[in-house]
Amino acid sequence: MTADSSVFLETFMQTWRSSRRFWLLGGVLLAVLLAFGTWLWVPVTVPAQVLKPRELVHSVVATATSQTQHRANAGVQIAGKVLTVHVKEGERFRQGQPLLQLDDSEARSALASAELAVRQAEFKLRQWREVQAPTARASEQQAQANLSQTRTQLTRQQDLFRQGFIGQAALDEAMRTYQVAHAQALTAQAQRQAHDDDGVEQSLAQSTLVLARTNAQAANARLSYTRMLAPFDGLVVSRSVEPGDMVQPGKTLLMLAPNGVTELVAQIDERNLSLLRLGQPAMASADAFAQQRFAAVVSAIAPAVDAQRGSVQVKLQVGAPPDYLRQDMTVSVEIEAGRQAAALAVPLEAVHESESANPWVWRITAASRLERVPVTLGLRSGAWVQLLTGVAEGQRVLATAGTGLREGQRVRPSQS
User: Fold this and answer.
1) H-helix or E-strand spanning residue 145
2) Residue 363, CB-side half-sphere exposure with 13 Å CA sphere
3) Do residue 189 and residue 334 come from a single domain?
4) Among 328, 357, 313, which Cα is nearest to 236's?
């Protein structure tokens, strides 16, 4: 091969290599431009929602326990040994029905002794009325008669002494006899006064009888304390006593729930306090009977917040409790805090920065382009939130938050 041929061949190879690099670079650039154009001009399919009025209910959900409006912690008033417990947990009872019996042998003996003392006091009063008082009156009459006789004798003896028929000794004897009779008359008078209807003896007999009757009443009350009776119609919620137990006053043996209004007691996060109002309707259900829901109404809201749990106690009254509802049963309650019959709402996930002061959504224009629109949020219901401003009925918005989207981008709405 000649020198000219070699030079020509080398020049051709260099030119071919340069052209190849040029076309490779151009191909890469073209691919990038095509990808960018596709991203810029080819629409992205996105889930869209046409805004239409719909009913929206805002609910506060909590866990509650069922119970009656009040309960009684029943216990004994005296210490003793339990002989019998007449009721079981979950058993219903009637007012006045015996619930528990203590050993009452000592109390019965004390009552018998007290009743005997009453009878003795009654006999004492009868003795005063039928024997002592009449005897005192008769004794006084006899003493007065004797005094009158000795006074007459003394006067006669004084006359005889002045006439000289008797001596000083006879006159002194008559005077002594009169003085003795006078003293006996005063004593009889005092005894009669003591046995008068308003006298000391009558008062003493009456007070003895009153004291005996009071002691008998106390003994009878103590005997009644050995038996626990139902204070109302109701249900035994819990029982913590058995026959043979030694019990003391102040200890709860039976927890009783009276028949009446059933309530649901819930602890609700204090952040929801502003949403709660008396009279708000609610629906409740137990996990075991999830399909059997029943109605309730908010009847009380505690005036104070539990600082430890950060919650407020709310009570809901159940007008027609279902048969399956039991005391202390755990139920789920859904309190209706607000209702909007015709609200424009979107899924909460479609709202950007929903917890901030400037929430916004993607609105799809008539030209199928994305437009960022500030909105004002209203009522929330589960996964939905009401849009008060920024959008109108019939407009389309992105049903999800979306990623990698930009304002002005063309989209292909997919109706949801």
Assistant:
1) helix 133-163
2) 17
3) no
4) 328
State the DSSP code for 416: -
Query: What CATH number is given to the structural domain containing 283?
Result: 2.40.30.170
Q: What is the pLDDT of residue 242?
A: 94
Contact assessment for residue 250 and residue 75, using Cβ atoms and an 8 Å cutoff: yes
The two three-digit tokens of residue 240, written as one number: 């913590």
Domain that holds residue 337: 53-65+260-415
Residues 285 and 215 in one domain: no
DSSP state of 406: -
**Does 326 share its domain with 219?**
no
pLDDT tens-digit map of 306-322:
888 889 999 999 988 88
d(CA 361, CA 332) in angstroms, rounded, equals 33
What three-state secondary structure class fits 193?
Answer: helix
68, two tokens: 């009656």
Residue 235 shares a structural domain with residue 287: no
Both structure tokens of 279: 């009279």
Listed as ranges, residues in the chain with pLDDT below 70 are 1-42, 415-416
Tokens of residue 121, six digits: 């006091």
> What is the structure's pLDDT at 145?
92
Coil, strand or helix at 111: helix
**pLDDT for res 353:** 86
For position 4, what pLDDT does the model report?
56
* The pLDDT of residue 200: 85
With CA atoms as reference, report the closest residue to 407 among 345, 356, 348, 361: 361
Closest CA to 284 of 324, 336, 333, 318: 333
- For 194, phi then psi, to 5°, come to -65, -25
Residue 54, token pair as written in the block: 């719909």
- Tell me the whole-structure pTM to 2 decimals: 0.53
